[in-house]
Design goal:
Layout lengths: L1 E2 L6 H9 L6 H45 L6 H23 L5 E7 L28 E3 L2 E6 L3 E2 L5 E5 L6 H5 L8 E10 L2 E9 L5 E4 L2 E2 L7 H7 L15 H7 L6 E6 L5 H15 L8 E5 L2 H7 L2 H4 L6 E5 L15 H8 L2 H12 L45 E6 L2 E6 H12 L9 H16 L8 H16 L2 H10 L5 H7 L3 H8 L5 H11 L12 H14 L13 H6 L1 H4 L7 H11 L5 E4 L7 H9 L5 E6 L9 H12 L4 E6 L1 E2 L4 H14 L7 E2 L1 E2 L5 E4 L6 H14 L4 E5 L4 H7 L7 E5 L8 E7 L1 H6 L4 H9 L2 E9 L17
Helix pairs in contact: 2-3, 6-7, 10-18, 11-19, 12-13, 16-19, 17-18, 19-23, 23-24, 25-29, 26-27
Bound molecules: adenosine-5'-triphosphate (ATP).
GO molecular function, one term: hydrolase activity
Keywords: ATP-binding, Helicase, Hydrolase, Nucleotide-binding
Protein name: Helicase
Length: 824
């Protein structure tokens, strides 16, 4: 591997480890003994850390048992806190023993600081060295050594054995550079597995110094912890980057949480990794504030699955919800994609107007032959719309004959009273003239019906005494509302609408046409209606990813109908103290309760949007509703946007983020793609967004992308052969990226090749990475949608090692097989 940035002694070291005889044996032995000695030093430290952790767990367990024995010692809060401590300590030890390859991963050796102040973690706080820290002849003594790990551990004398990576004292581990070293002389990355230290890699931040530690010269072993991490084979899950976070990334991770943090950067610059590490950092910084939960919005379930393990590996679980944008609404797990033309309509801000009309229109007697939407509940309580109900009704409808909504007929005070279509319509319009959600207007509609019937009854004039008049009125209302015919009418005339029900009603092209007049053109109207047919008559069918934002909007427009309150015997103490909220429920543990609350949560304290460039205006509205009082971190790359109208989305984004001040960061280094692949991808970037700069690739492999041309029009054999070849070449995963409509075909092409290789539609490749990729027919991907070139750019930037481009005839490949789109 040829390293493009900084000098690599790692290559030499690798040679020592693997090539043996190629290196001078005497030097190699010396080198090895220094390395072994340094590994031994770190091993002793790690042993000490484990001893201390075990001690702490025993301490916590003892306290716990002791407290339990003595029953009522301490407040419930203190007991719960102790419980939580034992629980956390147990988790940590379990993890330390089993999961982590590198619980302790870093170390910095520092010069004496300007002042002698220590922070809460026991480390000196000064960033700059004391004026006399460097002696004559550039000699210096190491004054402080800090070990950095996934959690902080204090020794019994409160000296720091391990500093939490998120603590201020750990920042120099990430920030120090030879240009701006601060107090750091040597930065060491420690590789360990379980309780065993396997290796160390050092970077010298002040190579000009002759530094010593406890009288011995400071040893320097290898370098390139970053390069080692980047060269590793990729699996099906993302790894954390905690031991090699780079300075520009660290600035974002530790940015203050106020308002909005916006991060842009090209493919592979670590935006997703940075966003997840930031979530862990924020929780560490201010756990109380973020107890309100952190929501990470991810574009696809595949990316959710890919990134899900990162936070637990950083010691954080429970407070962070990573949700795909198609799963933000409870009960909706959408994975289907609409064709681009339909997605474009559903995502557009114009849909808001259509939905507003639909939400109200669904109520009106706009259905042929009088009857309104039939109330018909399935298990999920969804409203089903009768498709153009026949006025004659069904044969077997005798017991549930459709209720007329153009005439209300009741008997009250022994008199027959009627309201006719015109009057009913006037009442409805008057109720609807307000802006309140439709379902919440039902009580008002009911009241106006009663007013109109009361007026008809002529009873108002019977008493002049206001008290008697009021009494009479109230018994009139009781009389009317206890009549089945009135209740049945109200249910039919002002039914409780559900989002799915209204969406399903929009599948009728004529009806939708009325609601979308002058908003969508007839072609768009037809497409939209046709796509919603998938929901079925009862609205219970499968949703597309874009339907979910419409559902969420409808939920707001319709409003949750008022539910009758559950009666329960109130303990007067409950009301006085709110104890019910504070006390742990007996039948539910603290932890279960936390999980339940997290599941029920609809608003969050912090919202992180990954791949933000892809949110449509309607999706921005949906995400915005979940963070109305939140602080935000928004990461994305305009060059990778699969949304056709970036200006419209930017507007919706501004609306969601409001006027909160924004802090902007740009990441500039591509850690994923070797230079050879990045260079090829930049050709598409130049076509998609002329003038946009590509991020700088940090390494090069010397392996150029390969080009293959499909024979006889069927890509199966060519793609399969390439996938097989790449599986032999790399240790990790291989991704085959095709146009969306070839997804299923492509899975068949790869049948039997094992689970290291996967087929992906172009939109699904978003955010993911593989050791090697095969991109099939760039032209086909580019032609899929108005944003096709940007989608192709995403597809071409997924590989960490090797890339093969397979062209079909429409790609117009040249003699070398290079498709037209990728030529100079
Ligand atoms: N500091 C780092 N140390 C080690 N690996 C890193 C570092 N920064 C990023 N990486 C690796 O680079 C790859 C790309 O990171 P990530 O997926 O977060 O980038 P991204 O900017 O979100 O990319 P894209 O926009 O293409 O989705 C990942 O494998 C990540 O682990």
């Amino acid at each position: 591997m040829h390293v493009m940035k900084g000098a690599s002694v790692a290559a030499q070291d690798a040679a020592v480890e693997t090539a043996g005889p190629a290196v001078d044996p005497v030097r190699a032995t010396e080198h090895d003994s220094v390395r072994d000695r340094e590994i031994g030093v770190e091993q002793r430290h790690l042993d000490q850390v484990y001893r201390r952790l075990e001690e702490k767990i025993h301490e916590a367990e003892f306290l716990m048992n002791d407290a339990a024995k003595r029953g009522q010692v301490g407040t419930p809060g203190a007991l719960a806190e102790r419980d939580a401590q034992v629980f956390r300590a147990g988790i940590h030890l379990n993890r330390l023993n089993n999961e982590f390859e590198d619980f302790l991963f870093g170390r910095i050796d520092l010069l004496r600081g300007k002042d002698g102040k220590k922070g809460p973690d026991g480390a000196y706080t000064s960033v700059e060295p004391a004026d006399d820290a460097i002696g004559s002849g550039s000699t210096a003594e190491i004054a402080e050594t800090l070990h950095i790990g996934r959690i902080g551990v204090l020794d019994s004398d409160y000296s720091p054995l391990v500093i939490d990576w998120r603590a201020p004292a750990a920042a120099p581990f990430y920030r120090a550079t030879p240009v701006d070293p601060g107090r750091v002389v040597r930065r060491r990355v420690i590789r360990s597995k379980g309780r065993r230290v396997l290796g160390v890699e050092d970077d010298l931040m002040r190579p000009e110094l002759t530094a010593s530690l406890d009288g011995d010269a400071l040893a320097v072993i290898g370098d390139g912890a970053l390069m080692a991490a980047l060269g590793q084979a990729r699996g099906h899950t993302m790894r954390d980057i905690v031991s090699s976070i780079q300075a520009e990334q660290d600035l974002v991770i530790r940015a203050p949480a106020a308002s909005v943090t916006e991060v842009s950067g090209g493919p592979g610059t670590g935006k997703t990794a940075v966003a997840l590490h930031r979530a862990a950092y924020l929780l560490y910084q201010d756990r109380r504030r973020y107890a309100g939960g952190i929501l990470v919005v991810s574009p696809t379930p595949l990316l959710v699955a890919y990134t899900e393990g990162v936070l637990p590996s950083l010691g954080e679980e429970g407070q962070v919800a990573i949700r795909a944008v198609g799963s933000l609404v409870d009960g909706a797990e959408a994975t289907a994609y609409d064709e681009p033309a339909v997605a474009r309509i559903k995502g557009s801000a114009r849909m808001l107007k259509v939905l507003r009309k639909a939400a109200r229109g669904a109520l009106e007697g706009s259905f042929p032959a009088g009857p309104g939407p039939r109330r018909d509940r399935d298990q999920q309580g969804q409203l089903a719309f009768g498709e153009d109900l026949d006025a004659d009704g069904d044969e077997d409808a005798a017991e549930a004959a459709p209720v007329r909504t153009d005439l209300l007929r009741v008997v009250a005070f022994g008199r027959r009273l009627e309201l006719e279509a015109g009057e009913l319509n006037r009442i409805r319009q008057s109720v609807l003239s307000g802006t309140a959600p439709v379902n919440l207007l039902r009580p008002r509609a009911r009241r106006l019906l009663l007013d109109a019937l009361w007026a008809k009854s002529g009873s108002a004039q019977r008493h002049t005494d206001p008290e008697l008049a009021a009494e009479l009125r109230s018994s009139f209302d009781e009389d009317v509302t206890s009549e089945d015919s009135f209740l049945a009418f109200l249910d039919a005339w002002w039914p409780e609408l559900t989002p799915r029900g209204v969406l399903a009603a929009m599948a009728d092209e004529r009806r939708l046409g009325r609601w979308s007049r002058r908003i969508l053109n007839p072609g768009e109207n037809r497409r939209l209606a046709r796509s919603l047919k998938r929901l079925g008559l009862d609205g219970g069918g499968p949703l597309s990813v874009h339907d979910v934002a419409l559902l969420d909007e409808l939920e707001t427009l319709l409003g949750a109908p008022p539910r009758p309150r559950k009666r329960r015997d109130l303990d007067p103490l409950d009301q006085l103290t709110g104890l019910e909220e504070l006390m742990p429920q007996r039948e539910e543990s603290q932890r279960e309760r936390a999980e339940r609350l997290a599941a029920e949560r609809t608003e969050y304290a912090h919202v992180i949007v990954d791949e933000a460039q892809d949110l449509t205006p309607m999706q921005w509205r949906m995400v915005g509703r979940r963070g109305r009082h939140a602080t935000w971190t928004v990461v994305g790359d305009a060059a990778q946007s699969s949304w056709s109208d970036p200006d419209e989305a930017a507007e919706a984004r501004d609306e969601a983020l409001g006027t909160r001040p924004r802090r902007r960061f740009t990441l500039t280094v591509n850690y994923r793609n070797p230079a050879e692949i990045a260079e090829l991808a930049s050709k598409v970037l130049a076509l998609a967004l002329p003038g946009m700069e590509s991020p700088r690739a940090v390494r090069s492999t010397g392996v150029r992308p390969r080009f293959r041309v499909v024979q006889n029009g069927d890509p199966a054999a060519t793609v399969r052969a390439e996938a097989r070849r790449l599986l032999d070449q790399v240790d990790g995963t291989v991704g085959v990226v095709v146009a969306m409509n070839r997804r299923e075909q492509a899975a068949r092409w790869l049948a039997g090749l094992g689970d290291r290789v996967v087929a992906l539609g172009s939109l699904e490749a978003k955010g993911l990475e593989y050791d090697a990729t095969v991109v099939v027919s760039p032209a086909e991907i580019a032609d899929e949608s108005p944003a096709g070139l940007r989608v192709l750019y995403v597809a071409l930037t997924r590989a960490t090692q090797q890339l093969t481009v397979v062209s079909a005839a429409r790609d117009e490949p040249d003699a070398e097989g290079v498709p037209d789109l990728l030529r100079d």
